[in-house]
């Protein structure tokens, strides 16, 4: 095109009587180029430049293959070296640049019957929900790559759970499952934010394993890999949603299903030139993986922060977690029977799901040892320490455990700390007097030690009570 424009310019100036030198100066072309063009014009034809053959033209197919595989210029150069091509890296770099400028290389992917489906979400604007309120709406599309049979479903969010449920509905529509599901890079805000987190990856993997298919994420900036479902999204936007009115959510579903069965899947497809439903029934239906007897039950997944009391909150109930994870964010998976708690992919706790609300499911081992007030071993440890102070201190400890089952450890620790300032004998006598007045608080015993009232006499009665004279 540029050479044709140059020829026209030179011809116009030449016919105006301009000399070769003037034309060269005006156009900026070399005098020889102008002279050669005028000579051809006089002969009645335009000069045609014959392109020089490039060294790498004979390896164009291999280079295109390397580029499609995502190889860089350096890797392409290395591969050519292994093929015995004597060429410099700069020549390879220039040739690749020439290819990319000349044409947008795109390879068409062909699949066998039942081998692959492509899935994607597409935003379709506002539609009425069950109450008639207009809400943001997305369309889910699963398209079988061989027959081009489509499944569409409108949704009001793009959560991973919704994404998986749409898969299940599509499998039921096809009455089977393809071997591979090609997934877009999930540009949708919510789905993109969550899908690549471990808990959601794990959920999708369990779902894929249950139905027996293998997910294949599309490569970034490679739209041709998911072109079928992208075409499907455009098709439903332009041929169903455009210009239609809906009463409510059910009306959207009803009209969409009618259009799917009576227009979308019985049209002659523009690429295959066949009717998707007919091609599906003839060649693809029996090639799909059979569905399991029971539908995949989707557990509730998410994240929770562990409270200071070593519990997390799920559906108005509380479940304990080992104390090492206090303040950290853990992953949860809840089904009809169990609550599974994990941290960075490692399971750290399992509970039976609580019925009702406000219930606690607690394992004592999840508390640190020094916080396990009801632990027998923990109580015995402090009981022995109090007995070493004296007999009366040991008796006071038993009363503390009975009267203050959840605070006894703090009071006991306080009493034991008095032995740093007073002798065991004094502390034991203070415990003896505190028992006599049934005043077994730490502050009372401390005051007895400080004011010396432990020296005052006491009477012993058969009812095991201490009474002052």
What does it look like?
The chain has 469 residues and is an alpha+beta fold. The protein folds into five domains: 2-43; 55-102; 116-287, Ribonuclease H-like superfamily/Ribonuclease H (Nucleotidyltransferase, domain 5), CATH 3.30.420; 300-367, no CATH class; 371-468, no CATH class. Helix content is 43%, strand content 17%. The chain is built from 17 helices and 14 strands. It has helices at 2-15, 20-27, 31-43, 60-68, 73-82, 89-102, 160-174, 189-195, 198-211, 227-241, 249-262, 276-284, 376-389, 391-403, 408-417, 424-436, 442-451; strands spanning 116-128, 134-144, 150-155, 180-183, 214-217, 300-305, 311-314, 317-320, 329-334, 338-343, 346-352, 360-361, 458-460, 466-468. The protein has a five-stranded mixed sheet, sandwiched between helices. The protein has a four-stranded antiparallel sheet with strand order 6-9-10-11, with helices on one face. Helix 5 (73-82) packs across helix 6 and helix 14 (391-403) runs antiparallel to helix 15. The chain is elongated, with a radius of gyration of 41 Å. The protein starts with a helix and ends with a strand.
End-to-end separation: 122 Å
- CATH architecture annotation name of the largest domain: 2-Layer Sandwich
CATH topology of the largest domain: Nucleotidyltransferase, domain 5
As an assembly, this protein is single chain
Record the strand order, biggest sheet.
Answer: 3-2-1-4-5
Over all CA atoms, what is the radius of gyration?
41 Å
Largest sheet: 5 strands, mixed
Q: Average the pLDDT over all residues and give the rounded result.
A: 82
Structural class category: alpha+beta
- Fraction of residues in helices? 40-55%
- How large is the share of residues in beta strands? 15-25%
Anisotropy-based shape:
elongated
Question: Can you say what the CATH homologous superfamily of the largest domain is?
Answer: Ribonuclease H-like superfamily/Ribonuclease H
Give the helix tally: 17
| Count of distinct strands | 14
Main CATH class of the largest domain: Alpha Beta
> Can you tell me the residue ranges where pLDDT is under 50 for at least 5 consecutive residues?
219-226, 461-469
Count of structural domains:
5
